[in-house]
Amino acid sequence: MSGAQYTLTGRLAVALPPEAAFTLFTPRGEELWVAGWRPRFQMRTSDDSAPGTVFETGAHDELTIWVVAARELGRRVSYARVTPGSRAGTVTVEVDADGQGGSTVRVTYELTALTSEGQGHLREFAESYRDFLRSWEVDIAHHLESRPPNAAVQS
């Protein structure tokens, strides 16, 4: 047993109202702004954030299996995730209006190491979590700035 467990929570700003910002945190929505994010679905799905939806990613040469665990459309989505032989846990994204036409997004990772290698990955992730979320904020802002005027957010 590795013994490493982390709960990491942070916030970022998104210059979109909550319903539009929410779509950026769905599996297909993240493709718009996360370099190298390519979810692979084993079954066709028209609603990639529906509870029970399963997909895989291969970032950093690691297979991660994701399951949409819960969703409040336009407001909150939770994913269970497992990187076999390394770490497992949940990721929850909550989107709220910021009172100025944009959104505040709270992102919580609850992860447990499955191996000593996973423990090292989690320690590094925890140490850089604030910078990790800051990079999300920057990448999303860049994506929004690069869209044509009046372009809708795709999901």
Low-confidence stretches: none
Shape: globular
Radius of gyration: 16 Å
Q: What count of helical segments does DSSP give?
A: 4
List the secondary-structure elements in sequence, H or E.
EHHEEEEEEHH
Total DSSP E strands: 7
Strand content range: 35-45%
Helix residue percentage: 25-40%
The N- and C-terminal alpha carbons lie at a distance of: 39 Å
Mean pLDDT: 93
The largest sheet has its strands arranged as 1-7-6-5-4-3-2
Category from helices, strands and their pairing: alpha+beta
The largest sheet, given as strand count, sense and whether it forms a barrel, is: 7 strands, antiparallel
Write the layout of secondary structure elements.
Layout: E1 5-14, H1 18-23, H2 27-30, E2 40-41, E3 54-57, E4 64-72, E5 76-83, E6 87-97, E7 103-113, H3 116-127, H4 129-146
Antiparallel strand pairs: 1-7, 2-3, 3-4, 4-5, 5-6, 6-7
